[in-house]
Amino acid sequence: MRLGAMAGRALETEAGGRLTLVAFGPLRDVAGASAGTLVQFKDVTREREMVNAHVRFSGAVAAASFVVFLALAAYYSARHEGEKRAIRDAFQHYFSPPILEAILREPAKLALGGQRREVTILFSDIRSFTSLTERLPPQVLSRMLREHFDAMTQQVFASDGVVDKYIGDALMAFWGAPIDQPDQADRALRAAIGMVRELRRLQAQWRAEGLPVLDAGIGINLGVASVGNFGSTARFDYTLIGDAVNVASRIERVTKERGGQIIISEAVCRQLTIAVSLRDLGEVALQGKDRPVRLYEVQVAAVDDAVTAPTPIRLADLTGA
Hints:
The protein contains nine helices and eleven strands. The chain has helices at 2-7, 45-91, 97-105, 129-135, 138-158, 184-208, 243-258, 266-271, 315-319, and strands at 9-15, 18-28, 34-43, 113-126, 162-167, 170-175, 216-231, 236-241, 262-265, 278-284, 293-298. 26% of the residues are buried.
């Protein structure tokens, strides 16, 4: 090849099983005048065999690398899909479909550990449940609880909330994690209003069947809490930890004392943008709190008229200030 480049003109010919490069170049005399043509021969059989062997080897390596790449891609794709299926199976009963899809895009959100987030927490608890357990057959009680929790959970999911856990006859849910929800207070209140409507429907159904009715109180609070998977590597829960959670639970207990069905904290009121009718309960001392918390009761009689239009609601309008 070098010889051919030097000569300017060259051709390959095969004779006797050997590959020969024939190069032609000008032959000049001492004066520089053309005196003929120089013909040179070079056996390039070995060089061509080396080139062909190199091409075959490179092609084999490329093909093997591509096969390995496809195998690794298939493996990691299957592994990723397996992780997504495991997450979906484990959390489909706790997250609404949009929230679950957001988590599947970023599984790291469910890593063991937590982070501080502003969240809105809802507690719903059935009243006089202990007495009902003593009067109803287990099968009937189980069915009524299932119907109750099914309806309440649907309302949480409808507002893209997270069902944290079922605690006996109580339900805990929250908004604001694992994804940001700037309107989390509105979402929680909409869910609570939907719960009351669903509870009324169930109560009418139970009365028609001659069964005692279940009633429930709902407490909502907004604050900062630690959110994440807490527990051991063998068993853990995606949940909230913090004072804001305890306050929400205490607010739900106030519904039993004051008779209201939905009671929210001042922190929730400050972030509401939906028009609802509220009654100022003033500052209420809660168990375990050094300072009282200002609470508001959502007027259940006006729940059916509580439109979810984004009409701003000012705290001054609620307190009469």
